[in-house]
Write a structure and sequence with these properties.
8-stranded parallel beta barrel; two-stranded antiparallel ribbon; alpha/beta; 10 strands
Length: 256
């Protein structure tokens, strides 16, 4: 069984427990400004970095031993991040939903709740702890569920990143008109990374008035330039190379 299937199977069991034990209080009047920040940068032809806060991954183990999400968030913001991505999945990535609450108390920056969404309940939950955007991972769920999650997120005033890995997923993602398109350069079944996946997929589709994010596999500004010169992609989600850096602020500044 591949890692993705293990995570989804665990999520299905865990969500039953969470529904029984968690109460949710929502402020539906508060609208997201995640997508708006990216659009504003694109209009100015500026690079946007969605900087990821994650303690661990199934393939690499612990990424940051001295892990302080508030301190990391500050360094990202000081270094020029446009938005943050916060891993909230607890078992495999050692994330925590409360990290979003804690960061939001200190900083007014848009945050993506990075998790494996398989139930609308999780969207209401994400909204309640302050997320501005959720991730819909097409390789993990069926199209019918993806559409349901997309609709619920829109009703809650949340933006969505619909993440794709191949042409079939991209064709469906483009039908979700309000969503941001995320192209993951990492194959979640093998965890092999190739940044050319963003270029290859981008060239096969038309993206009129759509935000496209290239995700994973970035180690230097050279990697960003490689993609931005061959496509009109100006938004990048970067995690491991930032989080593992000894000087996070300097590292994120170097990408910009």
């Amino acid at each position: 069984m591949n890692i993705l299937k293990k995570i989804i199977n665990y999520k299905k069991k865990n969500i039953i427990f969470e529904k029984k034990n968690n109460k949710i209080f929502l402020n539906l009047k508060k609208k997201s400004f995640f997508k708006l920040k990216l659009v504003n940068n694109i209009k100015k032809n500026k690079i946007s970095i969605i900087a990821e806060i994650k303690k661990a991954s199934p393939s690499k183990g612990i990424l940051k031993k001295k892990f302080d999400p508030i301190s990391i968030a500050k360094q990202y913001i000081d270094g020029g991040a446009t938005c943050l991505s916060v891993l909230t999945e607890g078992k495999f990535f050692l994330g925590n939903k409360n990290y979003i609450k804690q960061i939001k108390k200190k900083y007014n920056i848009p945050i993506l709740a990075k998790d494996f969404f398989i139930d609308p309940f999780q969207i209401y939950e994400a909204k309640s702890y302050g997320a501005d955007c959720i991730l819909i991972l097409l390789s993990a769920i069926k199209e019918k569920l993806a559409k349901e999650l997309y609709d619920v997120a829109n009703k809650c005033g949340l933006d969505t990143i619909v993440e794709v890995h191949n042409e079939k997923e991209m064709a469906f993602a483009l039908s979700l008109k309000k969503s941001i398109i995320g192209i993951n350069n990492r194959n979640l079944k093998t965890f092999v990374t190739n940044i050319n996946n963003s270029i290859n997929l981008f060239k096969k589709f038309k993206f009129k008035n759509r935000i496209v994010v290239s995700e994973s596999g970035f180690h230097s500004k050279k990697d960003i330039l490689h993609i931005s010169r061959k496509t009109s992609i100006r938004t990048f989600l970067i995690g491991e190379s930032l989080i593992k850096s000894n000087n996070i602020k300097k590292k994120i500044s170097s990408f910009l």
